[in-house]
Design goal:
With about 250 residues, the protein is an alpha/beta fold. Helix content is about 45%, strand content about 15%. It contains eight helices and seven strands.
Length: about 250
Amino acid sequence: MAPHPGKTCLIVGAGDGLGAALARAFAAEGLTLCVTRRPRHMEQLEALAQSIRDAGHQAQAFGLDAREETAVAKLVERIETEIGPLEIVVFNIGANVWFPITETTTRVFSKVWEMAALAGFLAGREAAKVMTPRGRGTILFTGATASKRGAAHFSAFASAKHSLRALAQSMARELGPKGVHVAHVIIDGVIDGAFARENFSDINVRLARDEILNPDEIARNYVWLWKQGRSAWTHELDLRPWAEEW
């Protein structure tokens, strides 16, 4: 794929699973990738960026605490000034935790909200600031089953993901008429990756039967959302394995 001169894609939360797959997928479309994780994960993040460069594409890694307002604003400004205009911003921070309600501390609840909701707001707001004057751009938010229903022991996570979904809905209604496509993707099921491989003893059986979400398949749908024409934009897309219960 020929490069898109100057156009960049920012992945906020480029972990080893879906985040990495998203980065590779958008890089393959010719965009310059900017990937972020918290500073303590810089070694893994730089390895991801290097693998993208080794494949003949462009990528840069940035340590970022996405809950920090000033840090997010400065990163967007740096990308716009030094790398190129943001074509796509993907907010992909998970923050999935399991706690009984009686053991959910204020600190846990607040931290999960900061990671999954506040950080999404900051990324979305800063993206909107640079995209709306150009009348174009795509902002994609990664949701979860908890975006639509709160399961037992997931009060903090479900509250934060519900908040992120509401944010995406409001932004879509506000920014769509200004030429910016905002979409929310509900990932309804287990994604193949380190967590799944460590926590499911039958992971190989599930993978062989396509009962676990493939990160590369998910990423292809994000690319499709970016390529949609504005006469038929999708706002919310839910993805699940064929065998997942609704």
